[in-house]
Amino acid sequence: MSKLIVGKRITFTVIVRDITDRLRTERQLQSLTAELMTAQEEERRRIARELHDDINQRLALVVIEIGNMLSDPSTMTTQVKGTIQSVSQRLARISDDVRHMAYQFHPSILDDLGLTAALKHMADEWSNRTGIKIVIVQEETADLCHAISPVVFIELRRRVLPTS
Q1: Residue-wise pLDDT tens digits, 83-94
Q2: Whole-structure pTM over 0.90, yes or no?
């Protein structure tokens, strides 16, 4: 608003702009962004479950089969036995790596024990990595769970605890 005085005459100029469409578009964009983040998190959860439930289980089965082969030492030479033990150890490491990747995609603690436990676990991990003690103090569990969505927790975790 501007005011112009010419002699005894006072003139006001007011410019009004309708921003209804812009606000509606911004709200739609926020909504779509939230939906996209939720869809991404659901996909991460699916991948994590598949890594853990399918691939890791198949690796475990191979390790068991190798263990069964090693249980009858009369059927193999020392060299073959050593090679099989080496393969078994590598498979166990691969299985650990797959479990770690699944956890990085979507920590199962979030689904199993909830946001509060997941935050405390993340703080403990950070403390172990950095030597800096973190204490989570909360007064009301319900308020915390509604204040932070699991999608926000996952993003926070990715930024605070990068993959090693």
Answers
A1: 888 888 888 888
A2: no
